[in-house]
Amino acid sequence: MNTQALNQIDPLAKQPEQGVNGNDMSPMDPPDAYAPPAINQVLPSNMHPFLRQFCDEHTAFMEELKNFEEAILLVQKTGFTKELDKSVRHFFHFFDADFAPHSHREEVTFFPLLKQRLMAKGEHAPITGINPLGINKTTGPVTPIDILEDDHLKAVQLAAVVLNFLGLAFRLPDEKSRLIVLDAALEQGKNLVELLRLHIFREDNIVFALAHQLISGAEFDRMHA
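^ thats the sequence. predicted structure below, dont judge the formating
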């Protein structure tokens, strides 16, 4: 079936959702996750130091994700070695010591104000019927902040699943069962990597640009202090 032709006649596309800056989006033809509707991009060098600090931390986080993904792929090929075990343990130490506090700072400093500004600007959507975003929210309007906070929660949950599966795998006496649980742990680890990559992309390319537009320098100064 020609989906592009279908989009031209499908009644669901007659009244497309309004995206950021008034871009038309249809639920029948959604944008790619890494190619969202155009937003006026802001270089990190032009951002307030408060936001720039988060961007700098993201750069370090992306390197950690790259190393963790490489370790997962090597474990799947060769099995656990002492060095790979060290790499996996290092990632979860980083997740607990760096990513979790980073997320908490975002949630308690500028997310609440940015959510208010997004609501006032009309940058939100209702939840109707089945939740298409899959976020842990069943009522009320959804803003980009709700999605990011849900990413934080899902990342913590996925990290816990991976750790528990790894711990279980090494305690199972049956080799076949051990390999099945280990494979599940590694697959969930890859899901965690992709979730965090997309999360960082959303923040760097969408949410921080919106924050730069909607929050004043004086307000960022107070947050920074």
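Strands lie at 17-18, 24-25, 125-126, 141-142.
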